Amino acid sequence: MAQAWKCAGLRWSADGPVLTWDGGRRSALTWGKRVAFGVADGGGRTCVGARGHACPVRAPVAGRSTGARCEECARLDRAHSVAADTIADDPRPYHVYLAWFGPGMVKVGITAEERGSARLLEQGAVCFSWLGVGPLMAARRSEELLRAALRVPDRIPYADKRAVRSALPGTEGERAAEIAELHARAVALGGWPESLRAEPFRPVDHVGVFGLAGVPAAVGAVSELVAGGAVGGRLVAAAGPDLHLGTRGGVVVLDTRLMTGWGLVPVVEGAAVELSVPVREFRRETGVQDGLF
After folding, report:
1. What is the pLDDT of residues 19-78, one digit of tens each?
2. Distance between CA atoms of 260 and 270, rounded to whole angstroms?
3. Which end of the chain is less enclosed by CB atoms within 10 A, N or C?
4. How does pLDDT run across 114-160, given as a tens digit for each residue?
5. How far is 169 from 173, CA to CA, in rounded Å?
6. 146-198 confidence digits (pLDDT tens)
C-alpha cells in the first residue's frame, strides 16, 4: 500500500505556489505541471489540530470544511489571532491595504508589515495597494473607518472571486482603477489615527504571478474530497488557495484547503487520472455554482 501524505496547505513563495506537507516536504507548482493524487480509501478526514499541535482526539471533520478543524481546535486556533481580533498587544507594525479581486470586488484589510505581500497572494488579490502603516490598533481603527465611512467590506467570498477570474480587464491600469479611486477617497477622510503613516497609491498587479492572463473559464469547482476518490489535471493558473486544473471536461478549480486532514496517496506514473470527486458546476451566465458536474 502506498504511503499516505498529509497536506499542510498551499503557500506562496517568490517563485510561485508551493504545496506543503506534514514533515516539511514541499512541492513547487509550475504552469503545465501535472497535479494528480488519490484519497486514501477506508479512512476519513480528521482534524488538523491547532497552532502546531495535533488534535488530541483526531476528531472527524466534514469534507466541505475549508478549515479542517473540529470545534475545539478551531476555538483554540482563533484564541490568539489578529484576524479574529482577539489580540491587541502585538508590537509589530501593520499595513492597511486595499485589495481588488474583480469588478466591484474591493476589500480593506490589515497584515503585518514584515509579511510583505504574502497575505495578498494568499487571498488571491488580483491587485492591491498599501494605504498606511502603523501600530496594530491604529491599523484596526483605520480598517473600521473605511468600512463605516466608505462601506468597504473586509471580506470577499471565495466563490465570488473564482467566478470572475477568466473575465478580468486586460490592462493593469483598468484593474487598478477601482482601488485608485477608493484610495483617493480614503486619504481625504478625516479621523485617521495620528500614529498611522499614510502610504502613496502604488498598485501591485498579480495577474502574471497567478497565471491568469488568458486563463480559460472554469466549468466548476471541487466541492469536497472523498475516500477512494482521485484528482488529476494540468495546472493552468493558481490564485490564493485555488488551483485551476485543466481536465478533459474543462478547467476545474481545486481549493487546496479541502486537501488538509486527508491521507493522500500518489498515483501510478503515466496513469490517466481524472476527477472522481464531487464537483459543483458554474452556471455560465452568472458564475453561481449549482448542481453536479
Report:
1. 999 988 999 999 999 999 999 988 899 999 998 889 999 999 999 999 999 999 999 988
2. 25
3. N
4. 999 999 999 999 999 999 999 999 999 999 999 999 999 999 999 89
5. 9
6. 999 999 999 999 989 998 898 899 899 999 999 999 999 999 998 899 999 99
C-alpha distance from residue 277 to each of 97, 192, 227, 283 (Å): 37, 49, 9, 19
* Three state DSSP letters for 71-119: HHHHHHHCCCCCCCCCCCCCCCCEEEEEEEEECCEEEEEEEEHHHCCHH
Tell me, what amino acid is at 118? A
Residue 292: what pLDDT? 28
The model's pTM is 0.89
Beta-bridge partners for 231: 37
Amino acid at 102: G
CA dihedral 232, 236, 238, 244 (to 10 degrees): -50
Q: b/e map of 41-63 (b: 16 or more CB within 10 Å)?
A: eeeebbbbbbeeeebeeebebeb
**Helix %, strand %, coil % for the chain, to 5?**
20, 30, 45
**Res 190: pLDDT:** 86
Q: Which residues of 252-267 are buried (b: 16+ CB within 10 A; e: fewer)?
A: bbbbbbbbbbbbbbeb
- Cα distances (Å, whole numbers) of residue 214 to 165, 208, 253: 10, 10, 16
For residue 88, the tally of other CB atoms under 10 A from its CB is 10
Residue 104 has pLDDT above 50, yes or no: yes
Cα 125 to Cα 122, 140, 240, distances in angstroms: 8, 20, 7
Q: Side chain identity at 115, as an amino acid letter?
A: R
